[in-house]
Amino acid sequence: MNLVYADEHGNLFDHPDWIALGRSGDMVVELMEDELIPLPDGATLVGLPHTRPIGIHAASGEMRPLPGNYQAVGALLPQGFTRLCIPGYMKTDKEQKLPLFGYSAVVWKDGAFHVAAQQCDDPERWNPLNCDPKELTVGVERLLAKYPENRLYQHLSNCALGYECLTASNTFLQRWEGAVPVSFSCNAGCYGCISEQPDDSGFPAPQTRMNFKPTVQELVDVMMEHLNAPDSIISFGQGCEGEPSTQARIIIDAMREVRSRTSMGYININTNAGLTDHIRGIVDAGLNLMRVSTISALDDHYNTYYKPRGYTLANVEKSLRYAADKGVYTSINYLIFPGVTDREEEIEAMLGFVKRTGLKLIQMRNLNIDPESYLALIPKAQGEIYGMKQMLEIFADELPGVVIGSYTHVPPAPLNQSR
């Protein structure tokens, strides 16, 4: 498996005399054959700025950086695929932080690019190649013309066309899971927030957070347009906003208005679930699906990353349990990282969390972060590190009734939508 690297102009090469390596946490590791799959459709290969690729020189057996002015290369995977290793690299400038993406190890093997990853879900719906730009532009123009005063559609048009957000694009294509952002504020200060960073963080936020409070009618317009098929999903809580439950009042009023008009489709919230009282109100208004973002079921790790304001992981667990007891199809947006999520203590804690909360689905989501910054922030490993592939096998064995996936699913059986 040949080392893949890039020159300063972004041209990609593979080196037949160098064997590719990966990283698990801060350890450089060999890549196993059973960890590699062909580069998926919709994946993107990128150079890692301010890095040098690390490999094994085949003739000498020595592990070292590739000589020359070259960058390491990583793959950005589409939804449906879980990375097993990050690329093997060293930084040439330790003060520089990598852009907020989830980099996966990539190699050249059997005449094609391969990545260290495992398919955990059907990638078809979230393949960027299935979003036709011309069709999207027509959808944006149509809904902007129909609702010229609706600021949500104006905001989402930039998300769809500017940031190429697939959930926002679905809102204009009126299919599958669509977006309805609602909050400009948050009750957490996530270290890797993709929409808002402190000026001194060193991370350039890849997108802009919404800066207005929508009205109930603006929400209702978007929801009614999207809930037009039995399997349609409209979701509060997007990457361009803060915590949606901080705007529980307008969410509840909009949900009640929409459900007075139609029982079609599913209403979902992507949330940190820390505001348990607000979550209860949203659940009671007729919520169908709830996806809770988490990085760990251990308090010290969770608190270090999320920096929760006025809530704890116990509140998150209480919210999930309440929603599950009320018939909501619950899942977690599990932010995973090789060498961390597969630690013995992390696995044990998450298994207990899943069982206590009655979760139906775990969405394995590759954490977008600068690896060195993240590893310096969180607690050190306490036990064995199993590897991501074995971790996935443990979850499948220990949680036979829980779906291991990558994105929000329509439940396998109809929900009670009259609640």
TrEMBL record:
<dbReference type="InterPro" id="IPR034457">
    <property type="entry name" value="Organic_radical-activating"/>
</dbReference>
<dbReference type="InterPro" id="IPR058240">
    <property type="entry name" value="rSAM_sf"/>
</dbReference>
<feature type="domain" description="Radical SAM core">
    <location>
        <begin position="181"/>
        <end position="347"/>
    </location>
</feature>
<dbReference type="GO" id="GO:0003824">
    <property type="term" value="F:catalytic activity"/>
</dbReference>
<protein>
    <submittedName>
        <fullName>Radical SAM protein</fullName>
    </submittedName>
</protein>
<keyword id="KW-0949">S-adenosyl-L-methionine</keyword>
<keyword id="KW-0479">Metal-binding</keyword>
<dbReference type="Pfam" id="PF04055">
    <property type="entry name" value="Radical_SAM"/>
</dbReference>
<keyword id="KW-0411">Iron-sulfur</keyword>
<keyword id="KW-0004">4Fe-4S</keyword>
<keyword id="KW-0408">Iron</keyword>
<dbReference type="GO" id="GO:0046872">
    <property type="term" value="F:metal ion binding"/>
</dbReference>
<dbReference type="GO" id="GO:0051539">
    <property type="term" value="F:4 iron, 4 sulfur cluster binding"/>
</dbReference>
<dbReference type="InterPro" id="IPR013785">
    <property type="entry name" value="Aldolase_TIM"/>
</dbReference>
<dbReference type="InterPro" id="IPR007197">
    <property type="entry name" value="rSAM"/>
</dbReference>
